[in-house]
Amino acid sequence: MKTRRMLLATVVLGALLAYGEAVAQGPVRQTVSIDDRVPTSQEVEAALFPKNIQAIKAECARVELAGMRCQSVIPKSAMGSVLVTFSRGSAELSGEALAFLSTVGDALQRRASSWTSVLIEGHTDATGSREVNERLSLARAEAVKSYLQANYGLKNIEAVGRASDQLKDTADPGAAVNRRIEFIPEW
Predict the structure, then answer these.
(1) Domain containing 43: what range?
(2) Is 57 part of any domain?
(3) Domain total for the chain?
(4) Is residue 175 part of a domain?
(5) Helix, strand, coil in percent for the chain, rounding step 5
């Protein structure tokens, strides 16, 4: 029994360490962009709660139940879309953004037991001053947060402004795709 447990632990730790090294070399956020259409709620769920991350979390839970510490790097899942963009200088949600947010709200409601909080990041393009972009990006995130809370009764949503720190299109810092929202669930 003890040998079997040690062998299992060695195999699991090896796999987790190999995955952790691979993730460490890449980004620690696994972002899915849905840019060509309003997605279904199932597509939103798959983007926010990907099966590969669920598998790593489950494996870590098994390792910890065996009395060991899981040292795997588990990336955050995130979802973004150019369908939730804003006019320059605006935090007003467009009709297309509202349609997209409806599917996000549906998905988050259905998976309410899967997540503890959701971070909504607002982004701006690189036009405007740092101060203006900080205020504007936060106002965008707050607009999305307010919509999801008012229309879907969702709680534990945090809004944060990232200004132009994480441009989606670095080749064109003023591009509309940079004026967007990203969703990062904590689960």
Answers:
(1) 28-50+75-186
(2) no
(3) 1
(4) yes
(5) 50, 20, 35
* DSSP alpha helix (H) spans, 26-170: 41-48, 51-65, 95-110, 130-152
Residue pair 52/77 in contact (Cβ under 8 Å)? The answer is: no
* CATH code for the domain in which residue 176 is found: 3.30.1330.60
Q: Residues of 155-185 as b/e, b for ≥16 C-beta within 10 angstroms?
A: eebebebbbbeebbeeeeeebebbbbbbbbb
Q: What is the pLDDT of residue 80?
A: 82
What pLDDT was estimated at residue 22? 43
Residue 21 located in a structural domain: no
Sole residue written with tokens 């990041």: 121
CA dist list (Å): 14 to 19, 25, 64, 80, 123? 9, 17, 15, 33, 38
Q: Is residue 22 one of the residues assigned to a domain?
A: no
Q: What is the pLDDT of residue 5?
A: 56
pTM of the model: 0.75
Across the 187 residues of the chain, what is the mean pLDDT of every consecutive 10-residue run? 54 47 54 83 89 85 88 82 82 92 95 90 94 97 97 95 94 93 89
